Amino acid sequence: MRVPEEYVSSTTVYNRQLRSDGNGRTRETEADGSSCPGTLIVVSNRQPYRHSYDSDAEEAGSVTGGDVPNAETDDSDAGTDDTDGSSADFPSRTANSRSNTGAVPRPNGAVERETGERSISVDEPTGGLTAGLDPVVQQTDGTWIAWGDGDADFAVADEQHCVAVPPGEEAYTLRRIQLSDEAVDSYYRGFSNRVLWPLCHEFLDLVENRSNDFEWYRTVNERFAEATIEHATEDAVIWLQDYHFALAPRMIRAGVPPSATVAQFWHVPWPSAETFRYCPAGGRLLEGLLGNDLLGFHIDRYVDNFLESVDRYLPGATVDWRTRSVDHDGRTTQVVATPMGVDAQSLADDALASDIDRSTLLESLDIPRGTALGLGVDRLDYTKGIPERLAAIERFFERNPSWRGEFTFVQKATPSRTEIETYERHGELVKSEVERINRRFERDEWQPIVYTEEYLDTETLAAYYRHADVMVVSPLLDGMNLVAQEFVAASVDADSCLVLSDRTGAHDRLGSHALSIDPTDTAQFADQLERALTMPSHERQRRMNTLRARVFDDDIESWMRTQFDWIRRVHGGTNGSGPGSDRDRNSRGRTPPV
What's the DSSP call for residue 204? Predict the structure, then answer.
């Protein structure tokens, strides 16, 4: 997969050309891209800008015509379509889109013009990791390599599938990978989300290892790796995002200059070694991930699980538990825990800027004034624990009849991966349970649960967060869960309560001042709901002020600084003594988990 050196070196010139203004001068940017030590190449399923035909005659959606990662809300889950179910990275086509009604610039200076009456709009990121990384790539003469899922993505790209972004402020190259329907079905909906997603979340009974899915996963990883190698220079910092690219690091390492750095952040949990033993092609995934110089997870537990999986199942690999590193195939991989944050200040600003006050919000949801408000914001994913949450709400109303008519729970749900039958069945279950509980307890104009799948823009979502009295985040397992942190950041009045699953990565940071729950313990869950609703105001404020301090201190900018600090360490060959090693005592002197 190695490409000619003269082609590789041309990438820097190509990117710098994009950054020239009309007078041929390179635009000034902040010094070094949040301390990234080289030219940054981001490899992600998510693209930062999506081009779509802006026409009523066109179907909304992607070139694949089905579920796409950019259409879903964060992990990351992270983020992600898969990074914890946070707020959507992309607004709807009718909101916050930039319309190109004339010529669309190409990175080589050519333009893509309209065809007939068709115009093209650009959807841009509004939050999460995608929005956070975009300015960093701009500052580093960088490249972003992603799946091109917009129906006009390749109409505006050049013959190498590259386009200059951001539109009108061209600062870096977006390289798009075109995937066939079969590739999307097998690589994305198949091995990524029928095998790795349930396995990493400890749902072994939902793992579906279909024939050919892994081969497509390998093929797509190879295509992303080949594209990355084409753009990699000697000082390249290649940063892969998430579980869609477990094989790619080893492929990339084989084709880039030895001085380039390969790093990856795994936004979902890493399962226990006992669970990982059932992973199809698990050894190949471990070998692929050990092609990284740096591999990041959200919390210590996932680091330990990964190291133990390597220790048990990869012969020839040596785990150093003290430094949390792995020697394999003549290379060292540093493994670190760096919990991801959110753009706390932007969320607080959105909450303050919204013109939706509490009365307006309640009225829009047909909730009587004076009613206490509970809130859940999730993708319709079986990992999010929504049925267990509904069971706890039902138990709460059974035990506390005085709260009937006085408390309403709003469940904001976003359909996700609807072409996978497990997700379709789960969505139907959630809606049927909401209807059943409402029939049981409703009275006059009051219902205990308001269920909505309506799209919420960032300011509206921030208003929901701000006016909620109780926020419930109750996944059965979650890599981090950014929704919990988003709620805290938007709680500018600091007079609300967070009920948080002890099975989220966010619990490690926020659990001491949230109300902690085991999401499968219905009785305890119901008790904590009652406690949240009856907690004195001074205690709510004390807890929330502490939570807000933590979320603002450890925001997404702080997280990215930590990532680049670690990358700088491994970039310079000093694995094993990176940032946080003095602050995080758990990263030194550890022994293997029992």
Answer: G
- Tell me if 518 sits within 8 A of 511, measured CB to CB: no
Question: In the structure, what pLDDT confidence band is assigned to residue 255 with cuts at 50, 70 and 90?
Answer: very high
Q: pTM score, two decimals?
A: 0.86
Select the CATH number that applies to the domain covering 182-254+271-340+563-580 from these four: 3.10.180.10, 3.30.450.20, 3.40.50.2000, 3.30.230.10: 3.40.50.2000
Residue 127: pLDDT band by 50, 70, 90 thresholds?
A: confident
pLDDT in tens, 496-523: 999 999 999 999 999 999 999 999 999 9
Contacts of 21 (CB under 8 A, 6+ apart): 27
Residue from 270, 239, 267 nearest 252 by CA: 239
Mean pLDDT of the chain: 85
Residue 60 CB neighbours (<10 A): 12
Domain residue limits, the chain:
44-124+146-178, 182-254+271-340+563-580, 344-553
CA distance 478 to 506: 8
pLDDT digits (tens, 9 = 90+) for 172-194: 999 999 999 999 999 999 999 99
Beta bridge partners of 14: none
Query: Comparing 182-254+271-340+563-580 with 344-553, is the CATH topology the same?
Result: yes
**Superfamily per CATH, domain 344-553:** Glycogen Phosphorylase B; (3.40.50.2000)
SS3 256: coil
- The residues, any chain, with a CB within 8 Å of residue 375's CB and separated by 6 or more, are 409, 410, 412, 464, 465, 468, 470, 471, 472, 487
Cα dihedral 252→253→255→257 (10° resolution): 130
pLDDT reported for residue 583: 35
More confident residue, 114 or 549: 549
